[in-house]
Amino acid sequence: MKQVTTNTSSKQDSCQRGWRLLYILTAFHRCSDVMKPFLLRFLQDACDSPGMPYQGIAKACQENLKRTFQYGGRVQYPNSMEIKAILAGRSSKRQLFLLPGGIERHLKIKTCSVALDVIEELCLEMGLQRLEALDEYAVFLVTHRGQNVRPLNKREYILDIATEAEPVDGNYSLWFRRVVWSLALKLDNELYVTMHYNQ
């Protein structure tokens, strides 16, 4: 916080690097309960200041911190590819998800995206808006050409899963499937019908 407040460093990118470091820290670590109100206020002030050059990243830090308190924070340290992306100012990755019938969906995965975010986005694309519907779908990590299939906890971070899977199997995949069938089928959405027919 000190590095990005009235930064007078002779290095032009000092303040920017400070914000990027704060972006990483807020995604991986909770702050103490004593520090929390000060950090939240600092980020809120940075977001609300008109003309502030780092409002975008301050907002992203605020969102990371909120999700870290909600989901516990990232577990796997970022791999070299993620670090390079963050240092270049990119905070998301396009990740492929496979649906039944060979349907592919590339979703924008942010640093703190969890499996529940993927389920919500794909359910919305299928026209499912009821909260109960979210409980009927899951994301699976598939490695070794389908020999190992593991359902993800809805609170697991997608980039943690990717970082964990890549050294084990560079050809890992993430599948989206329906796992509970209590709600009635509907026929008014092409993606929904195609996915369910193929599953």
TrEMBL record:
Pfam families membership: MyTH4 (PF00784)
MyTH4 domain segment(s): 1-87
Protein name: Unconventional myosin-XV
The organism of origin for this protein: Characodon lateralis
The encoding gene: MYO15A_2
